[in-house]
Amino acid sequence: MLNTLAQAFALITTWEVIVAMLAASVYGLVIGSLPGLSATMATALLVPVTFYLSPIAAVATIVAASTMAIFAGDIPGALLRIPGTPASAAYADEAYAMTRKGEAELALGAGVWFSAVGGIAGTLSLMILAPPLAEIALSFSTFEYFWLAFLGLMCATLVARSSPVKAIASMFIGLLVACIGIENPGGVPRFTFGMTNLFGGIEPIPALVGVFAVAQVMRAMLTPEPPPIPRRKFGSILAGQWKLTKKYNWQMTRGNIIGIIIGVLPGAGADMAAWVSYAMSKRFSKEPEKFGTGHVEGLVEAGASNNASIASGWVPSLLFGIPGDTIAAIAIGVLYMKGLNPGPTLFTEKASSMYAIYLMFIIANIIMIPLGIVMIRLASYVLRAPRSTVMPVIMLCCAVGSFAIGNNIFGVVIVATFGVIGYVMEENGYPVAAMVLGIVMGTMIEQSFVTSLIKSDGSVFPFFERPIAAILAALAIGALIWPVLVWVWRRLKRAHAPATSAG
Amino acid sequence: MSKKITRRAFAASSAAAAAVAGFGFKPALAQAYPARPVTVIVPWGAGGGTDATARIVAALLEKDLGQPFNVVNRTGGSGVVGHSAIATAQPDGYTIGMLTVEISMMHWQGLTELAPKSYTPLALMNEDPPGIQVSSTSPYKTVKELADAIKAAPAGKFKASGTGQGGIWHLALVGWMQAMGLAPNHVAWVPSNGAAPAMQDLAAGGLDLTTCSVPEARAIIEAGKARSLAVMATARNPAFPDVPTLKEAIGIDYSTGAWRGIAGPKGLPADVATKLTASLKKVYDSKEFKDFMSNRGFGTVWGDAAQFAAFMDKGDAQMGVAMKAAGLSKA
User: From the candidates A30, A141, A180, A330, which should be mutated to test the interface with B, based on the most B CB atoms within 10 A?
Assistant: First the structure.
């Protein structure tokens, strides 16, 4: 193994790999931090470039760019309340609240620091635990995925600050949006109104860009400039992170573990990891009332979780060629193109290349800290720039980004439409993040439910018979009736209390 | 930051504007084709198998014809948007594209008017036949055992997957069932979001068989979690020499496949089409193309313009029969 590690090290210490990795890192940071441009797009646009690179350098660019872009999505989330990815949408409100309190550097510092820690934890799990983790991935059938998606959807009510009823309503709007298109189990067009462009359905990313970025621009046009954040020097970014690490050690570890497990499940990925971790953090926090007011605890756990899931998401990709998410799907394409065919032989015959990939993950997460700090410093100027210059630029990014995804002008129409929807919803107190969650999870929950029923000939018992499904079902149903039990208990106690005091 | 964004965004948008302007040029008839860059439209996303194939073909065409061949992914509408962009482009040879098997399926479902006849076929480059895969824990060791068990079982007992409802691998199953004299839905189809999730569910014990192509199943097979019993093809895949064809194994002469080919809009000038087909033949014969395709486990099949047209017509009719039988056709 030491020998392989040495070979792997030799593979990545060539000028080509180092330059490719640095360039891809900067590129990933810039694309990820521009509102409206996503990590998936950053990776997809790299594909033509990888044609001209050696296999290891090609994989290096994908690893570096995707790692950076996922973290960088937190930057506009914190500074402008425009999350760069569905994953950062879970905690964008929280991070923005911290910025308004003047703690932007703490929020973003936590983002970069715990992302790096999570990424390294995820990579170590990939190195040590790949085979058993792969077994977990292969023990999940549609029955288990149904419960997982169900649990994911329940996070909508936990995360939202508004009334749970409005959060659920938003989530249902998201589920309705997820119904659009022909990519449903029946293969029939639904809500397409005969429009070819709607056949493919609404992707979460354009919807996300619309409801957050475009709606934010609309709000900015209609509301007076908010009181400027006190002008002062942007403080140290890393200071205090070590203290947070010690204080929230358990939250960080829990985030890492949840991230690794969810990441390894194909189709679930970073988005669900961040939501579940943020919701768990709030649920088990000693001070849940502080959540949503600019409290760093949830950021620690969710940040650690989503980057851990990126690395572990490569496990099913590398072992079985099953992509964990859209970024991994692109990465698999590049691996095949470069003759590094996914499969167990990659771990035996091409072990040095495998270790080279591991090393690149670790290096990417380490250089993310200095590069991320530079990026945060540059980005912080946006807080001082007048709104009238920032907003048009955001609008331009949204238009360019939504067009570039499919070279299709319809993407721009989708973003604009969701901008209006997002604006109206927010103005009436409906949390848009819950709708994004609905869009992300909708396809998965429908697909897993319908296909499960086809497989069981309409019987619902297999949803509870398979061992993992049974555990997940117990968790989901428990979480569902727990608040009801608490409510009944309080009612009884209150009904009892006045009776005794009166008597 | 805001200055930085402006500069970058400006560069990006001006690049986009230049690309759009490229479509508007009138062909320079006086010069020999190609006199300027050619756009190659891919109806599917970057990073997938179709995208990769188109990019290698474009790179080799560029080498042969001396003009840039730029791959543009026009996604959306489950492939309809990109296919329609190829069909409606100016027929001057400066916009061509990669057609996939969906073009012979979508019109039967009433999703589009586009059909193989909407194009000028140039060359067929690839075909991947469906395989028949079972989990490594499955009791069926050969396709004969599996076929006998399927015949003996009540309709709907066996569950298969590999792609969405009405997708190519679903129709492969329907065709196979019909060739065995069974009802098209004798094996129930469980729709999935593609071959990878279906293979995962097969390994997780949720399915009895999958009918995706063998290359798509390769990683799971090599991991020892599944095995391939047969291919629905006329010949074995050289990359998987141990997997017999259906005809060899159980005497059923049924074959189909997912294919990719290059075509232009209808009405492409004959000299341009001839030149492109000749160049595509060179691409097909090149070592780079062969190596690339065998690396990814993709099958290579050559068909010139006339053969490609005949191939699409035959496939189109076959799909129509299978889709009507499966109750998927609106025509």
Answer: A141
- Point out which residues pair with A371 in neighbouring strands: none
User: Residue A222: how many CB atoms within 10 A of its CB?
Assistant: 9
Q: What are phi and psi of A408, to 5 degrees?
A: -130, 125
- Both tokens of A211, joined, read 């409801």
Residue of B nearest to A394 (CA): B5
Residues B234 and B218 in one domain: yes
Distance CA B21, CA B13 (A): 12
Q: Provide CB contacts within 8 A for B239, sequence distance 6+.
A: B214, B215, B294, B297
In a domain, residue B9? The reply is no
Considering CB atoms only, which of B48, B191, B206 is closest to A187?
B191
List CB contacts (< 8 A) between A52 and chain B. Answer: none
Task: Note whether residue A493 is domain-resident.
Answer: no
Cα–Cα distance, B116 to B320 (Å, whole number): 13
Please tell me which residue, A494 or B11, carries the higher pLDDT value: A494
CA distance from start to end of chain B? 56
Asked if B142 and B229 count as a contact pair (C-beta separation under 8 A), the reply is: yes
Both tokens assigned to A281: 């953090």
- Output phi, psi for A85, to 5 deg: -140, 160
Chain A interface includes B239 (CB < 8 A) = no
Residue type, B49: G
Torsional class of B240: left (φ above 0), alpha (ψ -120 to 50), beta (otherwise)? beta
Give the integer Cα–Cα distance in Å for A30 and A24: 10
Q: Testing the interface with B: which of A26, A37, A142 to mutate, by most B Cβ within 10 A?
A: A142
Q: What is the pLDDT of residues B134-159, one digit of tens each?
A: 999 999 999 999 999 999 999 999 99
How many domains is chain A partitioned into structurally? 1
Distance CA A60, CA A353 (A): 11
B54: domain range? 36-128+258-325
Closest CA to A253 of A158, A124, A64: A124
> Least CB-CB distance to B55: which of A48, A187, A397?
A48
B2 located within any domain? no
Residue B15 counted as domain residue: no
Boundary (domain end) residue, out of B250, B277, B306: B250
Structural domains in chain B (count): 2
Answer yes or no: are the C-beta atoms of A306 and A120 closer than 8 Å.
no
Based on the fold, state whether residues B85 and B164 are members of the same structural domain. no
Give chain B positions within 8 Å (CB) of A79.
none
Q: pTM score, two decimals?
A: 0.81
Both tokens of B180, joined, read: 């065995």
Q: Indicate the SS3 state at residue B40.
A: strand
8-state DSSP, B204? T
Burial environment of residue B180 by CB neighbours within 10 A (0 to 12, 13 to 18, 19 or more): middle
pLDDT in tens, A185-228: 887 889 988 888 888 888 888 888 899 889 989 988 888 776 66
CATH number at residue B241: 3.40.190.10
Q: Tokens standing for B328? A: 């998927």
Q: What share of residues in chain A are helix, strand, coil (percent, to 5)?
A: 75, 0, 25
Residue at A501 is within a domain: no
Phi, psi angles (nearest 5°) of residue A281: -60, -45
Nearest residue of A to residue B163, measured between CA atoms: A185
CB distance A394 to A216 below 8 Å? yes
ipTM above threshold 0.90: no
